[in-house]
Give the backbone structure.
Amino acid sequence: MNFDLEISKKGNLSIGGADATHLAQEYGTPLYVIDENRIRDNYRRVYRAFSQHYKDFQIFYACKANTNLSVMRILEEEGSGIDAVSPGEIYTSLLTGFNPQRILFTGNNVKDDEMEFTVESGVRLNLDSISQLKRLAKIVDPDGFKISFRVNPMVGAGHHEHCITGGEMSKFGIMEKEAVEVYKMAQKLGFDPVGIHTHIGSGILDPEPFKLAVTTLMDIAGDISENAGVKFEFIDFGGGLGIPYSPDEQILDIETFAKEITGLFKDKLAHYNLGKPTMCIEPGRYIVGDASYLLTRVNTVKQSYRKFVGVDAGFNTLLRPSMYGSYHHIVLANKPLAESVEKLDIAGNVCESGDLFARDRTLPELEEGDLIAIMNAGAYAFSMASQYNSRPRPAEVLVKNGEIDLIRERETIADVLNKQIIPTRLLNKSKKN
Ligand code: LLP
């Protein structure tokens, strides 16, 4: 995880051994390029860091970050489980070979038919509210049915207000103060609550709030164990592990982080006599974030009141800069070592003023026809892409040691129109023409 660039024999940016300009020529732009080895390295780094301190450790990859089928296959091969948030994600996970018992469905405002689908699929249910618990009791025979709860531990953190999921303002989970009662209520209904879960937010580079969440959740688990007699089979601390998006940001030292987290976890297990439950985390961004580049071509250089460099992608393709003001590092793929000499704005092709990939960014001189690579576009990038402005979503390729595979075809305008129906009364030719 760094900003060192791989350079091809021709002097262009290389991604997973493939020349970026070749990829753009062959598959068109905008194009997502995913580096398989990077995903595997990231997964293995986290797994190793934690499992060396606590053996019974499981990663549930938060597939909302990137649900591409090939990415899912890679992670299934690596031994990951899945954090799923919708029937669509459950379906995708089953399709790509994940064992249903290794899929944890943590939904929010879940409908009955979504729970029915989850139960039929044999996937584990992590409940978000008392409402969901009561409705589930009518959908399944609760007798011995294993469930878990997401708890809001009153600790939150994240790279943006929208990405903080713990604390008073958060819509997620059951309240810390009602946790014991809710577990008792579940038992009374006949359920077997065997797990506890939290997720405090996303894009966390400072270990402190995460450590506080671990300590707090363990205290809550201890309380539940002592007062409701629950024997936990698993304790899940959610995702949130951040990655640096800019070279100035500090990398999360995963070795130290894992050592500290597992240390806190084990101390509390002993303190509350909680036995040896499976320890789970749910990273999404950390696994796939830096594994993908978005290639987009400069088509317009405009000297207006400011200098705008216009490209053929927009926030329909990568929403994060417009939605959260997120920084994404940008390199000139056809001259990756060129010196940065001027400040300019990189603008997308969507008809909204907020459609900018960078404002006042110091970059090399850019010309029409240049190829730009937007880095760290593996998480919440394609998965948040839309067809806004009636633009088809881009293609995706997977690269590994110079091998290139098209893993998602570029959409067409027909795909944008798909599923629309014009009522016959509107099919008559307008009298005005
Ligand atoms: N577990 C749960 C229950 C979650 O809600 C999430 C993310 C994760 C795990 C994975 O979090 P991660 O390790 O990727 O930080 N669209 C935003 C991020 C939203 C995250 C939503 N939940 C962004 O582009 O930054």
User: Anything to note?
Assistant: Residues 207-228 form the longest helix (22 residues).
